[in-house]
Write a structure and sequence with these properties.
Shape: globular
Distance between the termini: 35 Å
Helix content: 40-55%
Number of strands: 2
Order of helices and strands: HHEEHHH
Low-confidence stretches: none
Strand content: 5-15%
Length: 105
Amino acid sequence: LDSFMAESIVKLIRKLALANRTILCTIHQPTSEVFALFDRVCLVTEGEVAFMGETKGALDLFSDAGYPCPNNFNPADHYIFTLAIRPGEEDKCKQKCKDIVGYYE
């Protein structure tokens, strides 16, 4: 989907959620506008929950854990980059993810 269609679908899903429907979905690299439509998120790394709760709470948790989101940066991209396991940096990345998961727990 292009970003316009993704936003349209997420807006429709949001309307269903506001009508007391339970919605579970995954989204790949959302724009900041699309990400802002989500009330709650679950961020997973290495099979473990790094964060689950209100979307705004993820910013606080990552900041408190030492990984603040830069100003004017898409929070979704920040979570993806922070939780990614990069080739050649696997040990360092896995430790960072373990630290974030531990901070959440």
